[in-house]
Design goal:
By secondary structure, the chain is of the alpha+beta class. 47% of the residues lie in helices and 11% in strands. The structure holds a DNA duplex (13 and 12 nucleotides).
Length: 278
Amino acid sequence: MEYAREGNGILLRQADFDLDETLDCGQAFRWEKQADGSYSGAAMNRSLQIRKRGDCFLLENTAEEDFLSFWADYFDLKTDYGVLKQRYAVDETLYAATRYAGGIRLLRQDAWEALVSFVFSQNNHIPRIKGMIARLCALFGHFPTAKEIAVQSEDFFAPVRAGFRTKYLLDAARKVADGAVQPDRIQELSIHEARAELMQIKGVGPKVADCVLLYGMHRVEVIPMDVWMKRVMAEWYPDGFPDCTMGTEGIAQQYLFHYIRHCQSRQVFSYKETIPLA
DNA sequence: TTCCAGGCGTATC
DNA sequence: GATACGCATGGA
């Protein structure tokens, strides 16, 4: 990580970082690509516009203190993804996946935002998840806290068009607001215990719980098993993840998730004939 | 138009 | 524990 102040912003030189691959790979849903190629987004009610400039990145209107205390952590700039990719390179498929999208970084998102995001994700498309979160934020003028949501009725959320997920959103908000589920405390639990805590919430099953652990608490040993990762396992890893991923399976998962979606869109293989999807 | 989506709750065995 | 089914909504 190497940076300099640039006007009202920060000019960052950062290896292993691509905006499309990191901000539009299904881990965060509040980033929108602008016509000029930059990304506008927000996390924990800090907004940011970030763009590629030459071989650097410009974080516009960002104070150095904000960059160091928040965004550097959010973009996980202290982790050397080059080292990780080198480690993964012994595995043929992971090598291909990291070659395909070497600029993926695992964002360190807020646990509450991740919880809401992935409660919305169930049985849903990525573009629509984004829409629902945008409408939820529009309703409050910002990403609402658990307490702000908890005092509302189900009808209040009609404009979000979240369907059956609205009652799950309310249950999550009420349990977090009254302390029945405490994200701060879950950070300290074992994966098994943490998962069980999160699954007290209606609408949070194994997949959503694992997404909250991985994306919202940076528990990088977790592999959220959605339909895409089930295809990855069936197609490439019938005997389990390779040893080179040990301890960082969740990061490897992010490369593979992105890669298999690409493979399908390009019909690199026709897994539908050969792989049971469930 | 039909299919299905970064799943889960519930009923049933 | 496993298997089947419904679910709100809308993108493709």
